[in-house]
Amino acid sequence: MKKIAIIIILLLSTIGQAQEQSHIKTIIYKTETATSVADPSVSQAIQNFSYFDKLGRPIQHRAYMQSNTGKDIVTHIEYDASGRQSKGFLPYVSTSATKQYDANAATESLSFYASPTMARTGNPDFEATGNPYSEKQFETSPFGRVAKQASPGSKWILPSTPADSDHTVRMEYLTNSTADQIKVYKAVAGTPSGGYYPATLTQDGFYTEGTLYKYLMKDENWTSGNDNTVQEYKNKKGQVILKRKYGTSTVNGIHTESWHDTYYVYDQFGNLTFVLPPMSDGSGSTADLEGLCYQYRYDGRNRLVEKKEPGKTWEFIIYDNLDRPIATGPAFSPFSNSVEPNNIGWLFSKYDVYGRVAYTGWMQARVTSGNRNTLQMARDTQIANLNENKTATDSNVNGVTFRYSNQTWPTGPACHILSVNYYDDYDFPGAPTSFPNIEGQPVFYNLSVKPKGLPTGSWIRVIETTTATAGELAYILYDYKARAIRTWSSNYLGGYTQQDAKFDFSGKTLYTVLEHKRTASSSAISIREDFTYSDQDRLLTHTHKIGSRATELLTMNSYDELGQLISKRTGGTDLTGGSPLQKIDYSYTVRGWLKEINKVASLTQPGEPADLFAFKIVYDNPQATQAQFNGNISETYWRTANDNILRRHAYQFDSMGRLTSTSYHKPESVSAPNSYKESQEYDKNGNIRKLERYGEFDDVVTAMMIDDLEYAYEPNSNRISKVTDYTGKPAGFMDDGDGFNDNADDYSYDINGNIKSDQNKLIEKIIYNHLNQPLKIYFNWGAATGATIEYTYNALGEKLKKTVTEVPRPVKVIEYLDGFDYVNGILEAIATTEGYVKYSAAGGSRPATFNYVYNYTDHLGNIRLSYTMNPATQQVAIMEENNYYSLGLSHKNYNMTKRMYDREIGGLIEFCPACPIPYVYNYKFNGQEFQEEFNLNLFDMPSRDYDPAIGRWTGIDPVVHYERSPYNGHDNNPAYWSDPSGADVYNYGWGFEANGDEAKDIYKFINALLSGNSAQLKIKKAKIHDFTISINLPEVEVYGNSAGLSWGTFGAQYIMQDWVYRKSGLYEYHFKELREKRWDDFQTSMDLIGVLDPTGIVDGLNAIGYLARGQNTNAMIAAVGIVPYIGDLGKLTKYTKSSLKMGQEMHKAYKVAEEAAGLGIKEFREIPGIRPDFVDMVNRTIYELKPFNPRAMKAGEKQLAKYKAAFEAAYPGTIWKTVLDTY
């Protein structure tokens, strides 16, 4: 066997070997062929070439004919004298398509970026630079750790001589000193009591010098001192003890410069037990623990069973005997007819034999620590009936029928089913019984060919009362590649939405056909959307057709040679793009950050329709504020066709990246000082303490302060109790008092930290559901008015209906059905990827009309300007313009005219700003719906509402940021972050962020994993954004780069080659080899951040990535890392696994250890007499790669013990691990 293996290895090593250069050629076919094609065209297959040097290291990647005009895209790779990849080059476009190794790639790369031409780049706004690469500077020690990280672009270049004036990210690796004054906190888990180990927090002096590892990271804005610096202290177990930042905050009413410390405290078992945020100042007092700190309790199996987050009551978790979470509480009732005290209970999940969630529900019950313990003890002794089984007949629980048994806890009359999931077959109530061909594609799985392992259907309850059992039934039909070619779902009114998809051989969506009915008796609406692609699989056109009406061009995209989207044409029925409503141009920095949408200098460009909107983002070269080099935005400019005036926002930040001031200017004309200015001060947790806002006037001399707000908080808490406006003006924030004589609190809260009354908005009471979404809002407008807003959701929290009641006015009901909005039963709008379609019903002699409205959005997803073709004049017209304060309020008194379609005149009519409009497509800031009824003035965001007047959530953010208040909006930087869902993922370098509706689904996915459940990402309708290529359905959008401006697409149901990627400013996603490599880079970077990010959200998103590629073991590792209480030691284990690709790929690391460059040293020889195969210097772990057989592993144990002793002798005071400790 050994000889055979050697022969095979030798044969494999000759593949692609040539006299010129060793290489591997990869072909991914995109079309079916009857026979193999020796040299396929670019339309037939994706070809890539990876070239290697004599050491087997990749030195060049070449994507054959993948530029926009069919030339090769080349990425140069080089190594320093120590074999480390110190530079990461951006790809360049070759002058030809030759498939040949380019020996001058380094020179070509530099030339391409230094002197870009239209002929080479295909982009008139391509940004030149002399250093088209990122670069690492390593410390001069055996550890070889990164000391500086530079990015592409002349402003970020790594200087040849040491300097403090450069804009690199700096890392320092130290130990603590006495001057650091790091407090020693201890959490000792005592004798078990009440089903958990009670831990007592004590403070025992300070850490002595040299007992903690100290990591310093200075971002690209750093100049001197402690500003723009993060300090992280770890103990010898790798646990984060302290994260420290330096800045200015309001402390006891005084603006004070100080450290902002977040302490992490672990019990003797390594469990994260307490987290002390900055505002607690490390006091650990009882009041601070209850109001400001995070507390976690564990049972004898080391399971998290109780937790306390700031602003909320204690929460409890119950597990079954397989350690799967089966119930969490206290959870509010989902149902509108539950009243106190019977509105509290447990949310539960039941599993099938494969560990998948079969169904979920809510059980009314008392939820206390003692009650949890009693229930848990019963579960710990239960060894039978741990799973639910699929049944041939229906079960019934309180009127809900489903095709599973009902034998696991809980059972009984207090249980109410919320959702049911079906897998593996189509044997469930309402499942399809016929399987016709769909768009010419046979349905592969049916009643006889079972779709084993695939989700086939679901039932999701529509939440009304405990006796109402309406729900949304859904099913999925697949082709032979397990691609969803039909998704069908019913709605609670009796209608349905069905979407069919036609795929090509490689998995690209060619077209979709959607059919929608509001009720069973309604007329069906049919929508067909078609997609065309370039030979490089980039989306070219996206059209939209309603019924038999004319086809509308939603987008026609153009790309530069590297694949960046540089323009799109939108609107009109000219499918050639010759006469669009708008041509929108995009330009980027060399780092891939969005720089400009159209040209703010002029709205008129030769040969193009006049632009209606232009927008510019400035980072490092502002005119009126301080430059930002870390991805923060220093200025934005905009101009619209309404008045053709150039306007500007200039931003100022503190040293911790919190936005402190936004000023407004008109650079080409005169504006009054402070017009539309907004500024705020924060406490140590980022809670706003003071806010000043100007507005109402946009003239030369007048600037009126409309808000002078002072925030008061409950003692030892992030919960706001009162806001006082000393201006007394109703604009902006509307105070219920006069600013001087009103001492009563404005706000009260429920047990989950949600605002339940607001005196300023005359809100008497808010009732919330099991997901902490408002069910009903009661306004104190007098008993006669009965002013209420009532919401209807499904069990997943998707809003289905809003009912507005005010006597004696007619009740207004808005229904949200799969992207179709109805008002009082009449269709009003249909969502599209570029805006919406406004429907006008037939009347008199005029037929029904569908008019397309398009949106201009900025980098945050804010809808800035909506436009349409006026059917009466056949001219492009602006429907509405909105410009925002940073915190989300709209500027008033300029460009406020609104227009709407009028059936009688067959065109647009104009409304004054104060005029009521029958229906408003009221999506604005962050693309979210603004609710103005009864002056509610909140943005309805997926996981909690947002108040733009005070810049805070109305409930607790679902994702934990230990160093910040859970009520902070947009992480205190709304110029940078768009955060509608509360779910976010980011890092300091080339990070990624998920947000919006997509992040809402990611958040649900992560929550399911947190609960130990299986989970499926489900989005009913695909979205194709400005910076996204069309991909298969369903999808999850993840966008990245440190400014969060470049989009890429990742999914959890398809393998990598089924997806089409767009080039970001950093990486090229065109062919499988680089897709895999770049995806690995993405996941590795997220694993690294997972080590530093105790929230666990990064690991949650990473689990999606691993699942998408079939790497289930790594997915489970990432999922385990999600649990915030597992401690960083567990994450460090996973981090090494990701870096070295353990398991079957572990031995590959020995040969291609450069993939782990910067993490360690291959064949370590620094200590005489030993030579371990690989040493991870960062985590102090020694690897000896032995064959996986008993004799070799026994020898390896002895050898590793010898190595460990040698390292600890050579590096006194350090503790080393071996591969056996880690795995």
UniProtKB/TrEMBL annotation:
Keywords: Signal. Residues 1135-1223 form the Tox-REase-9 domain. Residues 1-18 form the signal peptide. InterPro entries: DUF6443 (IPR045619), Rhs_assc_core (IPR022385), Tox-REase-9_dom (IPR028902). The keyword NADP does not apply. Residues 25-161 form the DUF6443 domain. Gene3D superfamilies: RHS repeat-associated core. It comes from the Bacteria. The keyword Signal applies. This is RHS repeat-associated protein. It comes from Flavobacterium lindanitolerans.
